[in-house]
Amino acid sequence: MTVHIINTHLTYPNWTEGRLNAAMATVAKEHFESQGQEVTFTKVEDAYDPAIEERHHLAADLVILQTPINWFGAPWIYKKYVDEVFNAGLASQSFLANDGRNAEDPSRQYGTGGHMGGKKFFIAATWNAPKATFDNPESVLFAGKTVDDLLLNISSNYKFTGFDVLPSFGIYDIFRDQAIDKRLEEYKEYLAALTV
């Protein structure tokens, strides 16, 4: 199996240096390498080549997006990354050739034209929000939506190209949680339970 890890943390000096996202990426890398899997890794902030990223996606059985959630989405550098990498995959028709619909078969739905079937994707995220605010009809902000509902704007890119989207993993309330080491152990357990 080949795993591609994308760390999309964006550093804001003296505020957020990215240590937790780096730690989570390292946990995933070490887990898969210890299982004899090949791991490729990109830290978006440090630069990337869209053509190489396209090849990493094509080679990967599993893609992990490691990201902080800033203002309810991934940092802007990830949107730039997606635009460049997925447009490369569209231009070469390696990720998809069209959106799936065609005149010969009107039953084909939008979003079924991807070539990346059999591959898996999940988001590993750090949140300031507490876990209890999700999937909670009493939540003023999220009104019952789950974490994965709120990450649909990210995961849909992958589903559109044919990936199976796995449930996300989150570390929540990161500025108040006094048990971050325990959360990293929980991430190891999540990775160990994956069936890819």
Overall 3D geometry? globular
Give the strand content.
15-25%
Please state the oligomeric state of the protein chains shown: single chain
- The overall pLDDT average reads 93
Q: Unreliable runs, pLDDT <50, ≥5 residues?
A: none
Total of DSSP H or I helical runs spanning 4+ residues: 6
How many strands?
6
H-E order: EHEHEHEHHEEH
Provide the gyration radius in Å: 17 Å
Straight-line N-to-C gap:
8 Å
Descriptors for this entry?
6 strands; 6 helices; globular; alpha/beta; six-stranded parallel beta sheet; 16% strand
Short note summarizing the structure:
With 196 residues, the chain is of the alpha/beta class. Helix content is 35%, strand content 16%.
Chart the SSEs and their pairings.
Elements (H helix, E strand, L loop, with lengths): L1 E6 L11 H16 L3 E6 L6 H10 L2 E7 L7 H16 L28 E7 L20 H4 L1 H9 L3 E2 L3 E3 L8 H14 L3
Parallel strand pairs: 1-2, 1-3, 3-4, 4-5, 4-6
Q: What does this molecule look like?
A:
With 196 residues, the protein is α/β, with parallel strands linked by helices. Helix content is 35%, strand content 16%. It has 6 helices and 6 strands; from the N terminus they run E-H-E-H-E-H-E-H-H-E-E-H. Strands 1, 2, 3, 4, 5 and 6 form a 6-stranded parallel sheet that branches. Helix 3 links the parallel strand 3 (62-68) and strand 4. The longest helix has 16 residues, at 19-34. The protein is globular.
